[in-house]
Write a structure and sequence with these properties.
Elements (H helix, E strand, L loop, with lengths): L20 H7 L6 H13 L13 H10 L5 H18 L10 H9 L1
């Protein structure tokens, strides 16, 4: 998606750029749309295998903050989804394999 085709973001203070609006909106549905949940997991699995540099997507570095800043129809499902996706990315990067932490723990680690 180019800037000319970007949709305006509907949530002030969000880290997503206007170019990332479509991905932002897809991520907002991960707790209610199984297709979007699978897309998140697919991105997590392939993050270090595919070149996402030309794609207007939020990177895994943004996922924990994204999850915290938005409201969810099913908060526990969203927390589990982002926690698992971050765990998958960590494993793909060669990080030690440990149980997936709760989102609150992930947020504490990210904020350091």
């Amino acid at each position: 998606m180019t800037a000319a085709h970007a949709q305006p973001l509907r949530c002030p203070g969000c880290a997503a750029t206007p170019e990332q609006a479509a991905h932002h909106d897809r991520l907002l549905r991960i707790d209610v749309d199984p297709g979007q949940l699978l897309a998140l997991f697919e991105m997590a699995v392939t993050w270090y295998e595919l070149d996402y540099s030309r794609c207007d997507v939020l990177s895994p570095a943004d996922w924990a903050g994204f999850a915290e800043r938005h409201s969810w129809a099913h908060p526990e499902r969203a927390e589990a989804a982002f926690s698992l996706a971050l765990d998958i990315v960590g494993r793909s990067a060669g990080a030690p394999v440990e149980p997936a932490p709760a989102l609150a723990t992930v947020l504490e680690l990210v904020r350091g």
